User: Fold this.
Amino acid sequence: MTDNQLVGLRGRVISGRVTTTFGTARVSAPNGSELTVSCRVRDGEEVPLKGDTVILVAYDMRREIFDVTKAETWLVSL
Assistant:
């Protein structure tokens, strides 16, 4: 599974928080494996804290990091 294929999956924040520059989340891939990914939030987004559920919304191949948003925020915006 490529990093781009992980976009759209949910993860749980395992770092203290996710900022605009760094954070980590654990994601369950469709094949059942658990992956730890580097992630960040976009400017102006609510900062997810350890234990929060996030959605991987984009992948920056150059920096090798996912943009995430809190799951609750993402669901409200639909």
